[in-house]
User: Fold this.
Amino acid sequence: MNTNDYSQWFRGSTPYISAHRGKTFVVFLGGDALAHTNVTNIVHDLALLHVLGVQLVLVHGGRPQLDEALPESKIHNHRRITEPHDMPKVTGVYGLLRSQIEGLFSTGLPNTPLHNVDISVVSGNFVTAKPLGVLDGIDHLLTGQLRSLDSPRIANLLSAHNLVLQSPLGFSNSGQAFNLASEELAADISIALQADKLIFFDEIEHLQNTQGQRESTVTPSTLEDYLGDLSQGSAQRFLAMARAVRAGVTKAHQISFATDGGLLQELFTAEGVGTQLVEEQRHPVRAATLTDVGDIVEIIRPLEESGALVRRSRDRLEQEIEHFLVAEVDGVVVGCCAVYPHDLQAELACVAVSDLYRRGNAGVAIGAKLLDAAQAKAAQLGAKTLFALTTQTKEWFIERGFADANVEDLPNTKQSLYNWQRGSKVLLKSLG
Assistant:
């Protein structure tokens, strides 16, 4: 990466750094990830998130390590049936893995200005467990599931700048240890904490459509279309992510544990590298407020410089902010437009999407959402038609139901202000 590329990347990541600060992320690292050579880089990236103010709960697994330690143990529906005499080996394996993770975090961020930063990793008896019981006629013995989580204690530890590390173990009220399915535990913890993100590291890079192209975003209801092409382990992880999202976790991400820097690319770039799960999209467009003016300025500046938009001063934006709508992604303003009433007509103006999202399907989707919201607002204002003036994006409007019109079709107040030297195309759409 040359200096200019790095500068562009860092500038583009800045809104995400701000948006993620103070948020709670539950991260799952399976035993396969812990055995991979890239685990050191993953831990360093997690340490960087911690330094940037993200509150992290890390749940680890240990399936391949337990397979090696307990070659005779039985598996039912991807769950290990834990015999009582197996528990010493189970706790021993988890103890070694936990020590490995703690050791990796103790190195800080080598070869960076943060190499002397201390990262406090805290583990404890936060999970109260209960036996899974008899499923399909099979007693799962000391295989358990979450009964309750000491969420207040975890929240206090996170607020005190600790990183919480949880092994897939829980204890009953009588002190009996239970072996828990780590993927399910990570989802359960994210739900109990109402986490902002649940992040799973997996062997695959991302989901793919039938053309072999990456699916960057799916919803729980469409996930079923992809499960048949996944290994049982990957399918179980995606199902756990979907369950968490449906229970209120804002967003879940799947990232390859073999991709160096995958976590940072997924969280700090517009395009990401993995697959994210979100609940069926709520409308991401809202009325703008004065606090959005700075974001709007940054979004429209490149388009003003190219001549696609007429320049607007910050003072003018502040005066007209009641007419603006903004689109958000992950709490970051990524698009805007304005709707000005003119009796039975309304003007759609200043339609813009952030440079980070303008290319590709994400930009198209954001623009469509802004247009939908603008049409709804214009109708609420009593307008029967919506018009727009454009010099460079006529086709975008035509593709969305606008038709060519003349200056004479504009409201009288707008006709008198028309800039003949600029020569904008007039486009009109009925709201009937």
In short: The domain at 285-430 is CATH 3.40.630.30 (Aminopeptidase). The first strand starts at residue 24 and ends at 29.
